[in-house]
Amino acid sequence: MKLSRTTIRHAGAVVAAVMAVIYFLIGAGVLQVVTPNEDTGFLFVFGVLAGGAFLLGALLLMRFDRRWLWMLGAAFQVFVYWGYFSVAPDRTPAFEAWGITLRIVQVPLLIALLYLAVRPPEQRAAEIR
């Protein structure tokens, strides 16, 4: 069974939207990712920005099918992975359940973006034949 690009885009959008909700909940303080005695003021800004970025990604996945956009999206996902693991040693706890959960949920999004970036859209592929 071959999945269409639209199905893959929409599935990626759902994953990105779920990640956005989790980030918004982190920013709102509903989900705890650091010990409560740390400065959580920055978590609000972080949650809003990260949630907004993933929400924008979800909207772009729903609306467009542009390979260059998915290349940028995949690069952004790699940056998010790098950012999480590079700041982890400076946090308490270094690795927490929601951060690891987000990294696991992010895997299908990264796979979808890589697939969309590498494979040409069907319409263009049909024109080449």
Model description:
The protein is built from five helices and no strands. It is elongated, with a radius of gyration of 16 Å. With 129 residues, it is mainly α. It has one domain (5-128). Helix 1 (5-27) packs antiparallel against helix 2 (41-63), helix 1 (5-27) runs antiparallel to helix 4 (97-118) and helix 3 packs antiparallel against helix 4. It starts with a helix and ends with a helix. Helix content is 74%, strand content 0%. It has helices spanning 5-27, 41-63, 67-87, 97-118, 122-128.
Keywords:
129 residues; mainly alpha; 5 helices; elongated
Measured distance between first and last alpha carbons? 22 Å
Kindly provide the radius of gyration, computed on alpha-carbon positions and rounded to a whole number of angstroms: 16 Å
Give the mean pLDDT.
90
Counting DSSP H or I runs of 4 or more residues, the number of helices is 5
> Can you tell me the overall shape?
elongated
Low-confidence stretches: none
Q: Report the count of strand segments.
A: 0
Measured as a percent range, the helix fraction is over 70%
Number of domains: 1
Order of helices and strands: HHHHH
Biggest β-sheet description: none
Share in β-strands: under 5%
Provide a brief overview of the structure:
This protein has 129 residues and is mainly α. It has helices at residues 5-27, 41-63, 67-87, 97-118, 122-128. The protein is elongated, with a radius of gyration of 16 Å.
